[in-house]
Structure formats: C-alpha cells, structure tokens
Predict the structure of histidine kinase.
Amino acid sequence: MAKPDRIWWSHPPAILTYGIATVSIAGALMTARWLEDHLVGAPVALFLCAIMLSAWFGGSRPGLLAAALSFLSFKYYFVAPAYSLSVDIDQAPRLLLFAMSALFVWSLSSAQRRTSETLRRARDELDVTVQELKRLNEALLIENAERNRAEEVLRRSEAFLAEAQRISRTGSWSWNIPTRKVTWSAEHYRIFGFDAAGGPEPTLKSVLKRVHPEDRPLVRQILEGSIRVGWQFTFEFRAALPDGSTTNLLATGRPLSKDSGEIDEYIGTTVDITERKRGEVELAKAFSELKKSEAQLRTIIDTIPTQAWCWLADGSSEFQNQRWLDYTGLSTEETRGWGWTKALHPEDAERCINKWRKIHASELAGETEARFRRFDGEYRWFLMRVVPLRDEHGDIIKWYGTNTDIQDLKRSEDALRNTQSELARVARLTTMGELTASIAHEVNQPLGAIVANGEAGLRWLRRDPPDLDRVHVSMEAMIGDGNRASAVISRIRGLAKKASSQKALMDINDVIQEVILLVEREMQVHVVSLRLDLAPTLPPVLGDRVALQQVIINLIMNSVEAMSTVTGRPRALAIFSQPAEPAEVIVTLRDTGVGIDAAIADRIFDPFFTTKFNGIGMGLSICRSIIEAHGGRLGASPNVSGGATFRFTLPLAERISHD
Ligand code: ADP
C-alpha cells in the first residue's frame, strides 16, 4: 500500500528544528532587551512564545532546548544579579515560576504538536483506507460485471446446449455415487417421456421402469457391473414410453475420479437413435434391393441379345458383357484397357481406333462399323455405338456402348445395292429404249456422211490427175464422222454395261457434256432449245460416272417430256453448274414444261409414282438414291413463271477425303 505524501514540515530535518529553536530564542532575547524598559513582562511573554514556536515547529526536543535557552537568557539578562548566572534567593521564586511556565508551555505545545501529528497521521491513514476502499469497490464492480457477463455466457451456452440436446435428441446425466443423487438434463426427461417442465422429478427407479422390460435386466447388469469396477460403458437398449411407443436409445457413461483416485461420480449421455435405427434398417433394405437390382441388371446386361461394354473416361475399356466375351472368346482380363482391340479385324483396327479417338475428343455420342473376330476365327460386321455418361458438372465419367451384329444387314445391304444397280441399269436401258430413234439418228447421220464423203473421195481419186487435196479433205471429214459415231456408241455401251459401281475423280461439267451428246437429237425432235451455263472451272467430285450420267439423262428426258405438250411459249431447258459452300457443286436444270403441281410435289421422288400413261415412276427415285449415295441432295421446285427446276448437289472430292 502506498503511503500518502506528507507536508514538508511534519518531519523537518533536526538541524532546522534546533536552528529555529535557537534563532527564535535569540530573536525573543533581542526583542525583550529592546522592549525591557518600555514594557514590563515582555521578556517572559516573548520567551514563552519562542518556546511555543520551537516546540510546535520542531517537536519536544527543540522545544526543550528553547525552554533551557530561555531560562538561561532570562536569568542572565533579566533577573538580578544581571549578566550573571548565579541566583539570589529572593529571585528564586521568580525564576521557578518562569521555569514552570516555560515547561508548561513546552509540554502544552509538544502535546498539541503530537496530537495534531497523530490526527494528521490518522487522517492520512483514513485517506489511504478510503483510497483502498475505492479501489476495492472498483475491483468489486469489475468483478461483478465480469461475473454478470460470465453468467450471461453461461446462460447462453446452457441454452445452446439445451437446444443442441433437443435437436440431437441427446440427454445428459450425472450420478453422484456417495449421495446417490442423479441429475438429468431437460432432454433426458423428454427422452424417457417425463414432463420436463413442472412434472415430478424422475428418480433412477422411475427411469429404469421406462426401460423396455426385455432390456431391463441387461441394462441393470451393465450399469451395476460398470459402476462396481469403474468402467466406461456404451450400450443400446429400448425404452417403452407411456404413449405406447418403443424407442431405441444409446447410453454412454464414464466415471469421474477424485484426486485420491476414488470414483465419486458418473457422467454420461442417452441418445435417442430411433430415427437413425430406422434409417439404418431402411438403408440396409435399400442396399439389399440395390444389390438385387444390380444383380438383375447384370443378368440383363449379360443376357440382352447385344454386346454391351463400358469404357473409362480416358477411353480404355472397363467392362464387356458376357455376350461380348462369349462371342470373342476373350477373358475379362484380356479385354481390359485396350485389350479389346485384339478382336478387331486387322483391316478395320486402325480406322476403328482412330474413329473412337475422334468420338472421345468430341465428347459426343458416335458410332462406327467394324469387323470383330468370333471365338472360332470368323469375322462378322458390328455397328459400335457409344454414348458418354456425365456427372452433374457435365464432365464425362464413363462411356457406354453396344455392338450390334450387322453382318446379315450388311449382306442385305449388298444384295439391295446389287438390286438397285440392276434396277438402275434397267432404267437406263429403258431410257435408252426411249432414245433409240434419236440415237439411231445420231449414229446414222455420221455413217451417211462417211459414205457420202467416201464416195466423194473416190470420185476425186478417179479424176486424171486425181485431186488429192480434195481426197484429203474427204478423208478427214470421214475420220471426224467416224469418231463422232464411235463416241455415241461407246456412251451407249457404257450406259448399257453391267459394271459394278466404281468411283473416280471427275469434272461434273464433262459428264453434262457427254450426256448432251446423247440427248441433243431428242431435244431437236421436240423443239427444245438448250442453254448451257457451266462454271468455267470446277473442283473435281468423286463419283460413279455412269450413274451420274444416268441422273442427268433422266432429268433432261423428264424435262423434255414435260415440255413436249407445251404450246404457246418457248420450250427451253437451261443447265447450270456452279461451286457452292460448303465444298460442293450444284447442278440445276430449269425447264419451261408443265411444272409440278403442289399436290404431288412431295411424292414425285417416291418409287412407282408417275403421272404418265406409260411411266413406271422409278426414274426420280433412282436418281435421288444415286445422288444420296454420293453424299449429295436432289430436290425439285416449281418455277414462278411455269415449268420446274431440279437441282442436285455433290460434295467435292476434297471434302470427302476430310470426312
Ligand atoms: P416417270 O418418268 O416414269 O413418271 P419419274 O420418277 O422420272 O418417273 O418421274 C415421276 C413424276 O415426276 C413424273 O411422272 C412427273 O409427274 C413428275 N416430273 C418429273 N420430272 C418433271 C418435270 N421436269 N416437270 C414436271 N413434272 C416432272
């Protein structure tokens, strides 16, 4: 505790106190000497004042010094015999009185000084005590505020705990062993079906009564056993509640020991796990259902009449169904990763794997065809289809696919292709039958010219001298006519030949020109004018020349026929060719014929659809399948000013090679 500050004179230095005593007596002496003659009794009063001042200021010892000095001075200067310290007997009472007065003043002043010193000290101490009390009070206030805060925090955490217990259906308890007093949390009351607010406080006995009768012996046994040996315990049991319901509870408890090691309390929790139990049962049921349906699914996957498989996100194989394994004779292990490619036909392997890589990179569903080796070594065609399986972020987790045996389909496709090509040939022959007269004329005309030129040449030869220049001209004309007839015949042979389709690079303009040679005469006969507007240069297309010739002949012959009944306006056929985006050529035939009625517009490409008396309705259907087999499109539309426009596209060879 800090001592309070004191004023400087409460403990003045000794030299100062004695000095003041001496000086005050000297001062009193000089003043008394000066006043001696004027004022009787002044020396006594002055000396007493000096003693009083010295004792009051310096304490008892300086006061005593002042009294002694006063006495001596008084005797020496003011009591006879003057200027001597010897005492006359008759002056003795006066001196004694002075001494007694001096001592009385000294003792009074000393006592007063001591008293005021004591009072001052008492006041100082009181001040200190007051300060101390103030500090204590402040500390108490702080402590009180802290306690209030702590109590608030405690209240809040108790409320949180109670809420947490309520939400989690967890009750807590403690059991004081010496007093056998059990304390339950509110939730514990509720778990055992007691009224938490206001009802009678449950006892251990009443709680045990709420344990399901079948579990009660076991609960007693565990509790008693654990407490006897001081073990922790965790066990499940059931409670039979007053409302008739049965709940599943999980009890845990652990002992708390005193410093001596003696167990004096158990604390623990009881959790209502009815919902969890129910969930577990349902989960187990769902799991077994899942297992069952997974087994069923597996059986289905293995027995469906198609091969099914699954690839990992990186494209390597994870699973092949039994049908796939049975077909190839490979084991599951052998097919893992890229092992499945062992079953691919060597000619298809590279293409098939490249195609799969493309599908994998595109992250989209895709398909390809490939031959797979059967366990006995035979290869069959399969259509492989694959679709990605994505997670909720859209990332691919797996790829699922099927292999469908299309061997028989392929065979039928081949047969169909043969039939189609035979049909196309028959159609060509039919068209040529229609063109017979024109073609005969086309051939006859050069033949007649050859004969005429031959005769003329002979005549020039018979001349004397023979006119060899003229003969030369005749011979050249003969060769020209011969070539022309030969070209017509070779076109006809080409169209009539039963050749399998062979694709080659060609300029579609050349094909148009070749066809014109055959139908020119027919157009002349039907008074149809022809306008050719072909693109000066066209990139090559990859196609079957004869088939494309057939398409163009068919379209031209249809136009000629459609214009043959038209009167009153010119019969004109315009043929255009032009390049177009994306990487294709377009060939357009526009006529001024009868046009296409809206009612039949979408049927004219159907097989056997015809509006002609002698028609068979296969021409346009064959043309469309030829164009589509080349990767192009064929369509028709009526012209605003009458007549019809037919247009087909063909992809450029460069585009096909990219695909
Ligand atoms: P066909 O010539 O034997 O009738 P197509 O398949 O060639 O068989 O033609 C089917 C039908 O399409 C024709 O009967 C005709 O009605 C219509 N058609 C074809 N080309 C034209 C055209 N240029 N103008 C108008 N109608 C046409």
